[in-house]
Amino acid sequence: MNLEEMGSRALVASRVLASAGTAKKNMALEYIADALIESAGSILSANEEDVKAAKNAGTRASMIDRLTLTEERIKGIADGVRKVALLEDPVGKSDGGWQRPNGLKIQKVRVPLGVIGIIYEARPNVTVDAAALCLKSGNACLLRGGRDALRSNLELARIMRKAIAKAGLPEDCVQVLEDTSHETAQKMMKLNKYIDVLIPRGGRGLIRSVVENSTVPVIETGAGNCHVYVDESADIDMAVNIIFNAKTSRPSVCNAAETLLVHKNIAREFLPRAKEMLDKKHVELRGDELTREILGNSVVPATEEDWETEYNDYILAVKTVSSTDEAIAHINKYGTRHSEAIVTDSFANSQKFLREVDAAAVYVNASTRFTDGNEFGFGAEIGISTQKLHARGPMGLDELTTVKYQIIGSGQVR
Amino acid sequence: MNLEEMGSRALVASRVLASAGTAKKNMALEYIADALIESAGSILSANEEDVKAAKNAGTRASMIDRLTLTEERIKGIADGVRKVALLEDPVGKSDGGWQRPNGLKIQKVRVPLGVIGIIYEARPNVTVDAAALCLKSGNACLLRGGRDALRSNLELARIMRKAIAKAGLPEDCVQVLEDTSHETAQKMMKLNKYIDVLIPRGGRGLIRSVVENSTVPVIETGAGNCHVYVDESADIDMAVNIIFNAKTSRPSVCNAAETLLVHKNIAREFLPRAKEMLDKKHVELRGDELTREILGNSVVPATEEDWETEYNDYILAVKTVSSTDEAIAHINKYGTRHSEAIVTDSFANSQKFLREVDAAAVYVNASTRFTDGNEFGFGAEIGISTQKLHARGPMGLDELTTVKYQIIGSGQVR
Fold it and tell me: Could you report the predicted ipTM of this complex, rounded to two decimals?
């Protein structure tokens, strides 16, 4: 089936799904979870072929790991779907209502976006996560995963579509593109006629390409050049804990810290303590002059490029600053508006940081690693938006809806 | 000054403006209003040059009228600015806050978008309206108006910048591009480094071009192929009033009706009455077969193209349908998701219409002409969004903000 035809089917399905009740959508999600467990065998054998092909193509081990499904992982995916069924349905919620002097009654009501396109990379679990979140929020989805996971994705889609139909909803609510060519992805980015929103999930290159080529509105996700700023009044134990956690608990993710900023007045006391902890995980430090004076020449000299880099690795840039203002200026210059933290005991500095740092999530005395739909209490997330339009920060079900004004009159004209 | 430099200045100004208090922003708005009145002479003489040039270039009268400023119009513009000063400041409003089991306190706070780019056509009043709304909502703006109004726009900008500086805010909060070339507009659409959102205001061609070429996130405004559906249970007097108002009160605007849908069971009674009213304004009717059978051959036969066309003129397409479902299907196929109305006395049909019509504003028993920031009670509007992302329908000050999560901890790590 070609993309145009898939888009048209998605639109038709989205109209039915938009009016579907919560009970029916939850039933579809439960059927999907059941079916994933029951069909684990066929999923695993499709996945095995993907993994074999990837190995033959010389794909690196970390990618193979992300691609690989196991009985355990399938169970985890199914559990995730059941969790989505338990979440509150955002559709139909009122964002307020009022009456005008002429008697018109205006209600602002949450409705699904319509058709959501998702372009993503190798992990097959995204296929199910994204489909479940779209379904619960009343949106049809067009999923374009990576070539590496195609067999897995198609099998997962086949199973989900059957379960959706069993619940009495259109199976075209979920469609996976069989054609993973670059050309078709480009076409998808111009399919304004059928797709309401595109969400890219993956590496920087993928996201850049979607932002640059799409005429469909995009929600940009992903890049995180996050900072932890240790103010002169910081509790040193707390600051050591926070930077250690923010850097090393999972360096590959977007909410991990990439640069440590330290007030000069606390640097001599704090930096050796921080280094001692970071050494346990063999974190490579790249510092400015004062940092190297304090910590010694094992610290690599930092360059301009280091301030800009999202390492996603056991590397940390370190810069000393003379004030909270200087820290904020550095963050606003080099940050990607994702997650930024200050460790401080100064009320004034905490407020200044919260106010002036331009980012989706700004922390006082906590790790940047909490920027996450689950950690925020949303129950799930479709991604973390780093743009300012529509959604910012972790996107849960609410962020997969838009509004409609419903206006009740009694013959009013203007 | 080149665009890059202007963008960089806007960013710097936006940071200061984002932290400015409401009182200071209101003071700047009052100073702007005062200065517009005081400097009416210099504005009028700049405008006179624009008008003279446009006349020499053979610009048509309706465009000349939109371009022309008068003492009265300047007073109206200044009054508009004072009205914006009276509106509630959206910045700092909380969209909710909660505490997590680990003790993290999360607050979702409204903050300015940052730098807003606006690309618009000839009307110089937009320069002041847009600047005032951006200023009040804490956003710096880069305004790229039409070449025809350049002298007027530059003079308005000069006056506003002086007033802003007098209030102690950076004058670069408002900048008008001197270079109105196509190339520079194209560059502006790619200035992601400095511009957070682009809002095109103008004709369909302008909006299309921005949507297609911009990598900066866009809020699409404008196109309105709106319908009024007269259900079989409609009150005929009310229905006649509503279609007359929706079509003829101001045919050039986006919330005017373009197609009338009529249930077959009421068509013979309703259509002659509607025609009688519409004839008073010499509205040309283009109808389907049954409409022509009822109203006679003075009604032009409607073609597929008529269902798709936003006339913005005294022309109305008329189609008879057999059910509310057929009316909804027609609207969802041909509508531009702007404003749609049903006239009915059936509760079931009203609810079906409200639920199933996919549009920013859906009306029961009222004219589509109410889709407007002022009519909705927002006090002002920067445009009417016809996309689903970020904002839908009339955009007031709230829609010129985004959110920031502020998270307070006591040393939490993950």
Answer: 0.93
